[in-house]
Amino acid sequence: MPKEEMVAMLLAGGKGTRLGVLTNNIAKPAVPFGAEYRLIDFPLSNCTNSGITTVGVLTQYKPLVLNSYIGSGSSWDLDRHNGGVTVLPPYVREGGGSWYKGTADAIYQNIEFLDIHDPEYVLVLSGDHIYKMDYAEMLNYHKEKNADISIGVVEVPWKETHRFGIMNTNQDQKIIEFQEKPENAKNNLASMGIYIFNWEYLRKYLIEEAEENEDSAGDFGHNIIPKMMADELNFYAYTFDGYWKDVGTIESYWQAHMDLLGEEPDLELQDRNWIIYSVNPNRPPQYLSEDAVVDNSMINKGTQIMGTVKNSVLFFGVKVAQDAVVEDSVILPNTRVNTGAKIKNSIVGRNVIVEKDSKIGIEKEKEASDELKITVIGDDEVIPEASNIKAGMVVG
Amino acid sequence: MMTPVYKKGGANMNNVMAIINNALDESFLDKLTGHRSLASVPFGARYRLIDFPLSNLVNSGVTNVGLLLQTKYRSLMDHIGFGKAWDLDRKRNGLFILPPAHIYQANRAYKGDLQNFASNIDYIKRSNQEYVIIGSPNVVANIDYRDAFKYHVEHENDITIIYRELDVFRRDTTYTVINTDDNDRIIDMKVDPKKNFYKKISLQRYIMKKELLLDIIDDCISKGEWDFVKNAIIGNLDHLKVYGYPFHSYAAVINSINGYYKSNLELLKPNVWQDLFLKNGPIFTKPKDEAPTAYKNGVNARNILAANGCSIKGEVKNSVLFRGVKVHPGAVIKNSIIMQKSEIGANAYLENVILDKGVQITSNKSLKGDTNLPMIIAKNAIV
Question: Superkingdom of the source (chain B) (predicted)?
């Protein structure tokens, strides 16, 4: 096998508990996003667009949909003679086998895979962030700085620093301290969960951790990185100034969809210089009837719009019947909204039937505050005629 | 997902190959075929004409398809590639590009499409299927060949022609018409007759045994006959069992600019697009990974078919938009067909217009064709 400069390892085993009913049947990276895509399309497309052609996808939780979605990798142009995309589930060896205990353990258990490709650098990615990023630029930075480890960071608002892993840096962008979800942050550079490691070092630390610390959580943030820090390896922060969103919660998932709308969307998906690839579902063109009213929305093929759609994102195969109204919502594939139904501030799952005159997210509970509450309907639900599902409820 | 749509009691099509005949006169489409062949003319917001016959064959379970080429086939080859979008990139069988070998022999003038068959006779002989379906790309329909094939075999026909009885015989297009007796035997057939036409038209899908096709080609050429429909089919009506098989769903014959324009706009009728897109399996096309379409603030879009990748701010009515079309604020588009990556500037006005790919209409321009004579703007033009 020819030697590769950098191999990407994409951590895609997460359950995504905070996404609730949206991950009932699928791993988080397989969650649909942006009318056409699944979360994993973003890191995979970024890899292709950055010229990285060997990608290991580490799966664990409910991998079936994800495995068949990735297939041969041809959708992302990752069906290659050498490398390409390889799905790496946990497996059994001579001495037994185990689940991936954590992010680092997942890489450790696939040392053989990395040794086959024998890379200079390993890029570790997670499968649940929305962003368009050129990893090749980050690699150039890593080389320029003579770094042992580079961590992708974004500036987050100071009031949100307690939700992130914060990197404290010196003027040269060298990381001098790492604060995990700090009460009083000294900096507002949050880790994006994107790392470039010199493989030689990473390999050594992974093996040491596994052999010397049996109870290790096998986690980058808790085990490997603190140890490397203690050994004074060269850590550098690579600041990414584009759009980046962790869609780990219902609210952020909904908000990320709203970010696709507007005159100049925060995340432009129509950029032909940085295409986000997906397993293109083959569907007929979208049809808007004589009575359709559509405003500020993103709509995929295979949809039939006979009613009103405003400030919303509609996946393929969605039907909105006459006199139905969808506002400020995300409607997942193949869902049908029947006559007179009204939906607002909601996320409606796949293959849902919203029977006529139903209301979803329209009315508030009496004692509810003014805070925006997202209503969520899980996959395959049937919402009976004239039901009233109040704001903030979860069905599924 | 791309395996043929399962059909209970349907005929097994493993024994059937197909040839799509692109060696047709395409001059009638005027500016639209200046740089492409008829087969790669865009149709229905995200397709090319070839997508329809090709998808129909694949959905019916035919996996060996030869494409006879004649001229200007660069855009067609680009679209088809190795046939992956139709699941025809196979180790055995699959898609075969059949180039016009005779063009390299400058001293021999082009005589007719049978010459294209003849120059690829090895492919036909070598294919191990017993039957062949011959089709052409200028008929848009969603046909399941399994029923017609079953009828062909059970009825022991020599040739079966799929036909449709027209409700309206349009004078602005041309047809190959047929006349049948009470048992559907074809007793007369004419290509584009000026008078004495019939209500039944050939959908240009011919089913026969491969051996018969080889015999007919040899027979015709040895007599100096070079036209597939006129000589190979019509010339044999008297001494072969040639039967018609009726097709009852939507079918559009693209034989004129006006027919092309009207057929595109006809897709806006829900019963038409349902017939074409949702019955008998999907129509496949080359994926372009366009992002979904963005309807911006203040858009007014009604009665349209749109592909992905469009960004629409103006007013669009009764129109078909292909991939990546941009409509700026204040622009008005009515009864028009706007092809891939065309851009319509602010406050421009378009009515009864066909814009080919990549056309730019600058701000405040106004273009108007007639409902019966749409204005065509050629590829990449700047108006």
Answer: Bacteria
| Same-domain pairing of B146 and B272 | yes
DSSP state of B239: T
Instruction: For residues A70 and A82, give the distance between their C-alpha atoms in angstroms, rounded to a whole number.
Output: 17
How close, in Å, is residue B44 to chain A by CA atoms? Answer: 8
**pLDDT tens sequence across A182-196:** 888 889 999 999 999
Q: Are strands B315-321 and B300-306 parallel, antiparallel or unpaired?
A: parallel
pTM of the model: 0.91
Could you read off the pLDDT of B343-378 as tens digits, one per residue? Answer: 999 999 999 999 999 999 999 999 999 998 899 998
User: B383 lies in a domain?
Assistant: no
| Domain contains A140 | yes
Of A74, A283, A297, the CB nearest to B295: A297
Mean pLDDT of chain A, nearest integer: 92
Taking an 8 Å cut-off on Cβ atoms, the answer to whether A299 and B303 are in contact is no
ipTM of the complex: 0.89
Say if residue A331 is in the same domain as residue A205: no
Shortest alpha-carbon distance between residue A98 and chain B (Å): 34
Would the CB atoms of B307 and A301 count as touching at under 8 Å?
A: yes
In angstroms, rounded to a whole number, what is the distance separating the alpha carbons of residues B321 and B326?
Answer: 9
For A164-262, strand residue ranges (E) read 165-169, 175-180, 189-198, 235-239, 244-246
The domain spanning residue B347 has which CATH number? 2.160.10.10
Task: Give yes or no: residues A306 and A209 share one domain.
Answer: no
**What are the residue ranges in chain A where pLDDT is below 70?**
1-2
- Do the beta carbons of residue A328 and residue A374 sit within 8 Å? no
Q: Does B284 touch chain A (CB under 8 A)?
A: yes
Query: Length of chain A, please?
Result: 396
Domain membership of residue A44 as a residue range: 6-259
- What distance in Å separates residue A337's CA from the closest CA in chain B? 18
Report the residue of B304, B312, B338 to disrupt the A interface, i.e. the one with the largest count of A CBs within 10 Å. B304
* Residue B303 contacts A where some CB pair is shorter than 8 Å: yes
Candidate from B285, B307, B309 with C-beta closest to A270: B309
pLDDT at B1: 39
- A79 and A184, same domain (yes or no): yes
